[in-house]
């Protein structure tokens, strides 16, 4: 790719990711502060943000590390918290199918925010599509790492009351959901997700509802996809 095209892609990706920059710096600071309060040093925060790169799971990991859970428990918890990425990946098969060497990093760096941006900003042409996806993913990754580092440094210098900081990821998910709701006309998938989650929570309780809700959502979306395909064939 020519240098001018690279600069154009970088400029476009940076402008598109500015809201995520603000969010990730703030959320990353929250994570860094929690890690500081738990007594973990800067390099540990960097390693977690660089190689785990799972915002909600990293917040959960702070309490898991403190309680000294078994590796199996940590593995199961990680799967439950991040199982939604299975559905993200399935919906991006078409967009990412010809991304070549960038595909492994695109898969690794897929977050809720990156997914939302990739789906809502389809302006990338075939010539720069892979470069745009890669740059968006990389920038968001760097934002998150920077936020964690800043938070950990601040936490070691300034005393913080970290109570309630872990709720910040929940707040972010709600904002992403509302943005997706506003940008799409068909709300059926979202309603399936809401209904499955609420019913599962009521019936199976807070400790067991997540996996069951995921299974119901997956079945509902597959059924919806099949019905849509049948309607298209019939038309």
Task: Report on the architecture of this protein.
With about 240 residues, this protein is an all-alpha fold. The chain folds into two domains: about 5-165, no CATH class; about 185-235, no CATH class. About 80% of the residues lie in helices and about 0% in strands. It is globular. The protein starts with a helix and ends with a helix.
Labels describing this entry:
single chain; 235 residues; mainly alpha; 2 domains
Protein topology:
Layout: H1 3-16, H2 18-37, H3 42-52, H4 55-67, H5 71-82, H6 84-91, H7 93-96, H8 103-108, H9 112-120, H10 129-157, H11 168-183, H12 188-204, H13 209-234
Helix pairs in contact: 1-10, 2-4, 2-10, 3-10, 4-5, 9-10, 9-11, 12-13
Number of domains: 2
Helical content band: over 70%
With helices defined by DSSP (H or I, 4 residues minimum), what is the helix count? 13
The separation of the N and C termini measures 42 Å
Query: What is the succession of H and E elements?
Result: HHHHHHHHHHHHH
Strand tally: 0
Strand content: under 5%
Morphology call: globular
Structural class: mainly alpha
Q: Average pLDDT across residues?
A: 81
What's the gyration radius in Å? Answer: 19 Å
For the sheet with most strands, the description reads: none
Query: Which residues sit in consecutive blocks of at least 5 with pLDDT less than 50?
Result: none
């Amino acid at each position: 790719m020519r240098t001018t095209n690279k600069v154009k892609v970088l400029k476009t990706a940076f402008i598109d990711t500015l809201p995520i920059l603000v969010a990730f710096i703030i959320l990353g600071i929250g994570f860094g502060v929690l890690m500081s309060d738990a007594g973990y040093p800067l390099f540990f925060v960097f390693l977690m943000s660089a190689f785990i790169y799972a915002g909600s799971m990293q917040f959960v990991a702070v309490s898991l590390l403190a309680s000294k859970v078994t590796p199996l428990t940590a593995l199961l918890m990680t799967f439950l918290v991040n199982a939604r990425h299975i559905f993200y990946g399935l919906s991006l098969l078409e967009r990412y199918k010809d991304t070549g060497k960038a595909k492994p990093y695109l898969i690794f760096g897929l977050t809720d925010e990156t997914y939302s941006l990739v789906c809502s900003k389809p302006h990338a042409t075939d010539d720069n599509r892979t470069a745009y996806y890669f740059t968006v993913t990389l920038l968001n990754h760097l934002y998150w790492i920077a936020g964690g580092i800043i938070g950990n440094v601040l936490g070691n210098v300034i005393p913080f009351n970290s109570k309630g900081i872990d709720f910040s990821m929940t707040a972010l998910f709600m904002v992403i959901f509302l943005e997706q709701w506003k940008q799409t006309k068909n709300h059926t998938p979202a309603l399936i997700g809401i209904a499955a989650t609420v019913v599962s929570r009521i019936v199976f309780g807070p400790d067991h509802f997540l996996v069951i809700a995921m299974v119901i959502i997956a079945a509902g979306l597959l059924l919806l996809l099949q019905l849509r395909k049948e309607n298209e064939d019939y038309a």
